[in-house]
């Protein structure tokens, strides 16, 4: 039995929505609004939570491009990007060298 201020696992230890728990999305929306001085309102239903950068990059790749198309990416870049994007989505990575001043 959970007391006040304790998190009970029974309600969350099962399959959850693939875009994240609404309670967490509400908290993220509130946090982000405060972070920008309440000048922007964030809609929790438009927030997608992922288990890290790799799934986020993959989701964006599927949304923004089709297999056989390409992303132009400033290089050097995250070395796992080729794996994260190309292997599953079929999107090519075209590195463009960026020289630091």
UniProtKB/TrEMBL annotation:
Pfam families per UniProt: Aminotran_1_2 (PF00155)
EC assignment: 4.4.1.14
Domain Aminotransferase class I/classII large residues, every copy: 11-98
GO function terms (MF aspect): 1-aminocyclopropane-1-carboxylate synthase activity; aromatic-amino-acid transaminase activity; L-aspartate:2-oxoglutarate aminotransferase activity; pyridoxal phosphate binding
Keywords in alphabetical order: Lyase, Pyridoxal phosphate
UniProt keyword Lyase present: yes
Stored InterPro entries: Aminotransferase_I/II_large, Ethylene_sulfur-biosynth, PyrdxlP-dep_Trfase, PyrdxlP-dep_Trfase_major
Keyword Lyase (UniProt): yes
Subunit details: Homodimer.
Protein name per Swiss-Prot or TrEMBL: Putative 1-aminocyclopropane-1-carboxylate synthase
Organism in which the protein naturally occurs: Rosa chinensis (China rose)
Lineage: Eukaryota, Viridiplantae, Streptophyta, Embryophyta, Tracheophyta
């Amino acid at each position: 039995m959970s007391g006040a201020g304790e998190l009970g696992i029974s309600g969350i230890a099962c399959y959850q929505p693939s875009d994240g728990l609404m309670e967490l999305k509400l908290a993220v929306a509130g946090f982000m609004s405060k972070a920008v001085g309440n000048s922007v309102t964030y809609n929790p239903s438009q927030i997608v939570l992922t288990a890290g950068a790799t799934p986020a990059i993959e989701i964006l790749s599927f949304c923004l491009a089709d297999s056989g198309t390409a992303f132009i990416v400033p290089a050097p870049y995250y070395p796992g990007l080729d794996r994260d994007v190309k292997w599953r989505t079929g999107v090519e990575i075209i590195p463009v060298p960026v020289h630091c001043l």
